[in-house]
Every structure is written in C-alpha cells, then in structure tokens.
Amino acid sequence: MEVTLEEAKTYLRVSTGDEDSLIESLISAATKQVQDITRQSDEEFMANEEKALIRIRVAVLYTVGYLYEHREEADHHALNMTLRSLLFGTRKEGF
After folding, report:
1. With contact defined as beta carbons under 8 Å apart, do 56 and 90 qualify?
2. pTM listed for this prediction
C-alpha cells in the first residue's frame, strides 16, 4: 500500500533526484500521520479494502504535497482537519 518515491515525485512534479531523501521522509511522515488519523494499527492499515486504499493513497499524497509546499509554515491543525474530512469513512471511532 505504500506510496512510492516515483509516485510522490510525479504528484509533486519533481523531475530531479536532488530532494529524494526529503520526499522519502515526507512519505514516511505522511503515512504515519494518515495512519494516526484513521486510528488503525499497522496490521489494519495495511489490510484496508481497495475502496479505502484509494482514499488513503490520496490522503498520503495530499499530505506529502502539503508538507513539501509548506515546509516553512505548515499549519498542522488545518492539515489534520482536512485529513479527517478526507478519511471520514475510513476512520475508526476509537483506538
């Protein structure tokens, strides 16, 4: 289910390898943030059904894009509220 470096670079419209390590770090952070928003364990997160996986991939890519573009002044509260809206149908009620 993991978003790949190439997929993220395409989404970000980055064609060089100069920022690969940054983008890989953003993918990791975004994946963890989306997992936290959905309140799922590692096993549950990886076992999502296809319909939920599409939402999750979009949310991860959105988060990567947001963090990439706003690295100096990211509004994490606004980002989390957007992710909650995107992932409403996938989010568990509690842990």
Report:
1. yes
2. 0.88
Domain that holds residue 62: 5-86
- In degrees rounded to 5, what are phi and psi of residue 46? -75, -20
* 95, part of any domain: no
Angle made by CA atoms 55, 3, 44, in degrees to the nearest 5:
60
Domain-located, residue 91: no
Is 17 inside a domain boundary? yes
Domain count along the chain: 1
Is 86 within 8 Å of 59 (Cβ atoms)? Answer: yes
Chain segment 35-53, per-residue pLDDT in tens:
999 988 888 888 888 878 8
Distance (Å, whole) CA 60 – CA 56:
6
